[in-house]
Amino acid sequence: MSHEIEKGVRLLGNVKLGQNVAIGGPAELNARDSEITIGDGCDIASFVTITVGDSHGQCLGYAKEIEREPVLIGEHVFIGQGATILGGTRIGHHSVIGAGVVLKGQTIPPHSRVKVPAPIIEPGYYAQRG
Description:
Blueprint (H helix, E strand, L loop, with lengths): L2 E3 L3 E9 L3 E3 L3 E12 L4 E2 L4 E3 L1 E2 L1 H5 L6 E2 L2 E3 L4 E2 L4 E3 L3 E2 L4 E2 L4 E3 L2 E2 L4 E2 L10 H5 L1
Parallel strand pairs: 1-3, 2-4, 3-5, 4-6, 4-9, 5-10, 6-11, 9-12, 10-13, 11-14, 12-15, 13-16
Antiparallel strand pairs: 7-8
């Protein structure tokens, strides 16, 4: 089993890596008190966060404990730079998660592409100023 894990990657708790997984640094995979499973052949870009915990309910006073749900990432998944994958998320095999995407508790079907929309703000703005 070979991995390509760059300097600056933090693996915390029960992180299960398949074969030939690449993770760019810096990145953090936090599986404290739950688990993160990553399938074979995945490529995780730099500045990615994958975490099982959600403490906002505890912080705001309506939950007694940190909510923790496992994360499952199928085989041959690419996760783009700066993406955040939160507890309860399941990503199907051969999917692409684009840069900057945030997922929480979602199930992404196999062979999917998930991206952040890039809306056009004020089309023609600079042309009118010319």
